[in-house]
Amino acid sequence: MCKIVHLTSAHPRNDIRIFIKQCRTLAAHGYDVTLVVADGKGDAHVDGVTIADVGRLPGRLNRIFKVTKRVFDKAVALDADIYQFHDPELLPAGLKLKRLGKTVIFDSHEDTASQLVGKPYLDPLSRRVLPAMFAAYERFACSRFDGVIAATPCIRDLFLKINPVTVDINNFPIVGEFSTATPWNLKKDEVCYVGAISGIRGIRQMVRAASLLQSGARLNLAGRFFDPVSEAQVRAHPGWGRVADLGLLDRAGVRDVMARSVAGLVTLLPLPNHVDSLPTKMFEYMSSGIPVIASNFKLWREIVEGNECGICVDPLDPQAIATAIDYLVCNPDIAKSMGERGRRAVMERYNWDVEATRLTDFYGARSNAKQAIATV
Fold this sequence. Notes:
The chain is built from 15 helices and 14 strands. The chain is α/β, with parallel strands linked by helices and about 375 residues long. An eight-stranded mixed β-sheet has the order 3-4-2-1-5-6-7-8, with helices on both faces. Helix 1 (about 15-30) crosses helix 15 (about 350-375).
């Protein structure tokens, strides 16, 4: 049996992309799968996946330097056939594993170099220098790996220039996970936003939009604030009176929020790392059968307007967001039809079943190549 180890120094053990989708899929297809994490919650065995915890250390520097060493040491001790790592700070560990003769795959969840440009904790000089330095090191490392998995087609195209063994495995929903039987006439005059909450994800504009609503609708926030400055600002804004702050919810809680909502918001600001992304929440809204109110990025318009499953707006314009919310709340038949078209698009194309096949095919090719080398 081929032994696979997934490595993360930053993500939680129940990460949707890493554990719920990839690790469980590979285990269900007969692979011996271990997930190495650093959350301090101890070892476990869940859904056929062994979880090995190297312990948690506070602080970004500890994570980058000390935790990554722990993850590497655990990876070596596990002596797997194939390693897949999910964090940019593990690139050096991936190179060390390659030097040990291991098969190594990098899973690029985002365009990290572009993301660094928008990091609020970096000074202007660092924002100019660090992205270029990181991109150069990433090219050097990934050209030596046995393959790259990318979270979107845009990221795939970037890595194909570096490593020809690159495939996109998209974060599309698991079929049926968010399907609900809530009749449309029982829905409340509510819309929702699900995910990490911060300024760059449009929380200021969403709360300002709430203050402009004519329909009396409310905004459900399901997630955790990652930006204390934005949190303080929006809590002091008059629009906060129309917000239900639900906090971080489990998957069942997220399903229930979507079920009672008329629409889902994904109005991320136009930053380089957002414009070409495929946000998981957009497809989860579609899967739950509610229309999407999305940023008017070209790629997102192709999906939302192409499938007639929502409205695209300028994410910097609170009035445009409010107008879209009011329109869907006041036109339930149109909203229902948009939601049905979105769900149909997920069932036919944007679902994890399609991506799971791509993942297992990718692993099958890597496993077969390793076995062929071993028999020479």
